[in-house]
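Morning F.,

Quick status update on the modeling queue. The single chain you submitted on Monday has been processed. Sequence for confirmation:
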Amino acid sequence: MEGVHVVTYAGDLTPQEAWDALEANPDAVLVDCRTRAEWNFVGVPDLEILGKRTVFVEWVGFPDGAPNQGFVAQLREAGIRDSDEVIFLCRSGHRSIGAAQMATAAGIAKAYNVLDGFEGALDENDHRGSTGWRASNLPWRQS
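Structure tokens below.
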């Protein structure tokens, strides 16, 4: 059907819905699939208050942007199981769609994308940060 977007993963969550799922479900896992540079220089979600840790697996490499060929293997190495609810977060909610799709194809049926990601899309002034995880005042830290 033309013009119909078929979702090939469990769905999209707002940052607050993602936090609520992480808080309510002991088998919910947050995977930050941004680059190491983004984790180091922009900040990362902090799940300490929930007694959880964020899993960090790059979806694409930096600086070349090539797909991470070991993505699914690295999810498995991090302990992610097919039965887990896996919530993928990137900068603005685009790369995490691909990550959720690949996880779904690998057998993780409950793979979700966080809308607006960690920092959101560019605003009218070409700045990020007015939407997303940080703008939702969810816990995060910067090194």
